[in-house]
Amino acid sequence: MTNNSEATVQGVGISLLPCFIAAPYIEKGMLTPLLTDYSLPEHSIYAVYPNRHYLPHKTRMAIDFLFERLNPKSEYGQRYEINYYASR
């Protein structure tokens, strides 16, 4: 078992990948979802910074980018939700 998508695509074994990483490979037929009715516990990610008033713009942009990509309620997150794989 690995978390390396490149190794998995090359046939090294199976992996546990985030939906947003695995989805493009699945869409191209390079990976096949396994255990689609099994779900992992949810995890949280926190952005910790000293003071919002002095937050650099590039830091705010990075936080917004991660929120969009990792938020299951965003358009991007809903597209690559685990139910997406189960319905295929």
Automatic annotation (TrEMBL):
Pfam families: LysR_substrate. Coiled coil: none annotated. InterPro entries: LysR-type_TF_proteobact-type, LysR_subst-bd. GO terms for biological process: DNA-templated transcription. Residues 7-70 form the LysR substrate-binding domain. GO terms for molecular function: DNA-binding transcription factor activity; sequence-specific DNA binding. It comes from the Bacteria. Belongs to the LysR transcriptional regulatory family. This is LysR substrate-binding domain-containing protein. It comes from Providencia stuartii ATCC 25827.
